[in-house]
Design brief:
alpha/beta; EC 3.4.19.3; pyroglutamyl-peptidase activity; PGPEP1_Cys_AS
């Protein structure tokens, strides 16, 4: 019989700073609202801002994973093209040509030289999307397989590579297009709670199979 989990779950949450036309990044607004709502007493939440800089991402992501060793890392970014809250299934290694806030772009145009072209999250994003969509939130949640080949995608791939897939990425639309800060915060709360539940149950099945 499998024992119940008693220790707190650990979640590390990242949002992105201002860039381009996004003087106020909606991902930061959504994270602020999530912090007000919380994730319950059983979850330790660590929140960090990620600068829109390739080299900082390459240095910071491994350092934060080493420091906290969380059950899950969730990255939250804004997409000017998004009209829904979007769960990204995977991160991509190559095709990074856009300049960051420091006017820098990797010469190799990739995240990890020699790394796989694409890495999928171990989180079943389809299941999370379906479950959140049944909660009656006034926010539409969708799935994507292309995080955009800029700092969002670059960060996601770097995190997936570092964590062996134990990462997730949520894209939010710009504030007011169409959702309020409160709507984004509630959606983010529901998404992360469902991600933790899906992750816990999938790992519980694995542990049970190992015990028999």
């Amino acid at each position: 019989m499998c024992g119940e989990q008693t220790q707190n779950q650990s979640v590390k949450l990242h949002w992105f700073g201002p860039f381009g036309e996004h003087a106020v990044n909606a991902s930061w607004i959504a994270v602020q609202e999530l912090e007000k709502l919380g994730l319950g007493d059983g979850v330790d939440l660590y929140v960090y801002e990620i600068p829109v800089e390739y080299q900082t991402v390459q240095r910071l992501i491994p350092a934060l994973w080493k420091k906290h060793s969380p059950q899950l890392v969730v990255h939250v970014g804004v997409s000017g093209m998004a009209t829904t809250v979007t769960l990204e299934k995977c991160g991509h290694n190559v095709g990074y040509k856009g300049l960051d806030n420091c006017r820098f772009c990797p010469g190799s145009q990739c995240c990890v030289e020699g790394g796989p072209e694409c890495i999928d999250s171990i989180i079943d994003t389809d299941a999370v999307c379906k479950r959140v969509s049944t909660l009656g939130l006034d926010v539409t949640v969708t799935i994507s397989k292309d995080a955009g080949r800029y700092l969002c995608d670059f960060t996601y791939y770097t995190s997936l590579y570092q964590s062996h897939g134990r990462s997730a990425f949520v894209h939010v639309p710009p504030l007011g297009k169409p959702y309020t800060a409160e709507q984004l915060g509630r959606a983010l709360q529901a998404i992360i709670e469902e991600m933790l539940d899906v992750l816990e149950h999938s790992e519980g099945k694995i542990n049970c199979r190992h015990e028999h």
